[in-house]
Write a structure and sequence with these properties.
- The structure is a single chain.
- The protein contains eleven helices and 18 strands.
Length: about 450
């Protein structure tokens, strides 16, 4: 069972058109999720390139249609950890890029393409349950503030504030409130939470967004944009003067190729005139299967998102998260709120095959039910269970830009659990690179 509520909302009318002949274009994009479609949008609107986009299945039916749909600038690594690796300047620029620029870019797509996909933005909260978490994130907030980034004060329960050993220099970054207030913003009955970090969040059906946007591109750029679905790429050959892509019995040639996948596909990358890329690339990205569940409830509450950090964040004991947004399925259907719960993940062995039709594991549904019971003091009936393949890079940062061993290959990949804003930002950066703009070095540059 892999029943995604976002795919159930799609009203797709386009026929599936696989690659049926040899083609050529200035730029070839592999991957028809939000990263690939957004990359096509910015290349078509900011350059004169022609584009062929190839998708192994159907547009938005992979990770883009199997997520929880939270629009967040949350990085999987803290500001402190990123700054230790990349330096303060690049880390600060990356946070501004995702927290500010990416949201503006996403809004610009909505305006230019006149999209109608529901899109909301609001303040979410990250619930903390331990003193060491509180100190760690307060210290991180201080470093962000000193770097010139906007920070919102951490809410700390007054019932616990006197028991916490908070360094004097971190006091300006807290706002003491009642624990009742913290539980209210987290919408939980779980009294273990003693603090909450506000963050700018939002919700969007990224599958619906991608499907609507690709329809716009097909109608506006019929002479420059070609979409081929049900077209699995088997091999990419990077030549000195062009790229040759193999898909079944047909080929596509171009000046450059952009991989906009989750980074875990079985695509052979050949670089006959340079260093090996194939081995390094496939070892750069770890496949992770994320599991989610959702239930419908009356349309009486506003859109919402929160993260719940319990005893740590790792494979065996991940954080959980929830999102809520209006949901309706089908013409003239009743509108509900759909609340989604996610968090459990399973790491795939190197180059293992992900089975999108695999049954939802009972142990995962039990873990979500246990969280819901602890969270709400009851276990709601789930209307949807789904899972999707995400790609986690070794650096936990998205890869955006040229492959250093052959600049005809570019990347906009690596979900790392929070992919919507980084996909859109990466798409715009790829278009600017192809437009030969001089860009500052970034933590997203392939290393």
């Amino acid at each position: 069972m892999n029943h995604s509520p976002w795919l159930a909302q799609l009203n797709r009318t386009r026929p599936i058109e696989p690659l049926s002949q040899n083609l050529s274009a200035d730029t070839i994009i592999v991957g028809g999720g939000i990263a690939g479609i957004s990359t096509a949008f910015f290349i078509l609107t900011k350059t004169t390139h022609s584009v062929v986009l190839l998708e192994a299945g159907k547009v938005a039916h992979a990770a883009t249609g199997h997520n929880a749909g939270q629009i967040t600038s949350y990085f999987e690594k803290t500001f402190t950890e990123l700054a230790e690796r990349y330096g303060i300047v690049r880390t600060t620029a990356a946070h501004k890029a995702i927290e500010e620029d990416a949201r503006i870019l996403l809004e610009s797509i909505f305006v230019q393409a006149q999209l109608t996909t529901p899109f909301s933005q609001f303040i979410g909260h990250d619930g903390l349950s331990r003193e060491d978490q509180v100190i760690k994130y307060l210290s991180d907030m201080q470093k962000k503030a000193l770097a010139g980034l906007r920070v919102r004060p951490m809410l700390v329960a007054k019932e616990w504030a006197g028991y916490l050993t908070i360094p004097h220099e971190l006091i300006p970054y807290i706002l003491v409130v009642s624990q009742e207030n913290i539980l209210s913003v987290l919408e939980t009955d779980d009294t273990q939470f003693i603090a909450a970090i506000p963050f700018l969040s939002g919700c969007m059906n990224s599958a619906m967004f991608s499907e609507e946007l690709v329809g716009y591109l097909l109608s506006i750029y019929p002479d420059r944009f070609t979409l081929c679905e049900h077209t699995a790429v088997s091999k990419v050959v990077l030549g000195k003067d062009e790229v040759l892509l193999h898909a079944g019995i047909n080929t596509v040639t171009g000046s450059q190729i952009v991989l906009c996948t989750n980074g875990f596909e079985s695509i052979e990358i050949s670089n006959p005139h340079g260093e090996d890329i194939d081995t390094a690339f496939h070892h750069e990205v770890q496949g992770v299967v994320g599991y989610m569940a959702g239930y419908k409830e009356p349309l009486t509450k506003a859109p919402f998102a929160s993260i719940y950090s319990h005893e740590g964040m790792n494979e065996s004991n991940p954080y959980f998260y929830t999102t809520r947004r209006p949901y309706e399925n089908g013409v003239n259907s009743t509108a509900y709120n759909l609340t989604c719960i996610g968090g459990p993940e399973v790491y795939l062995p190197d180059r293992a095959t992900y089975d999108a039709n695999k049954e939802y594991p009972m142990e995962v549904s039990d873990r979500i039910a246990t969280f819901a019971s602890r969270h709400y003091k009851h276990s709601p009936h789930m209307d949807f269970y789904w899972h999707g393949l995400m790609g986690y890079t070794k650096s936990w940062v998205r890869l955006v830009g040229h492959e250093r061993k052959n600049r005809r290959l570019l990347y906009n990949l690596g979900c790392n659990g929070v992919g919507i804003l980084t996909s859109v930002y990466g798409a715009d950066r790829i278009a600017r690179i192809l437009n030969e703009e001089i860009l500052a070095a970034s933590i997203f540059d392939p290393q």
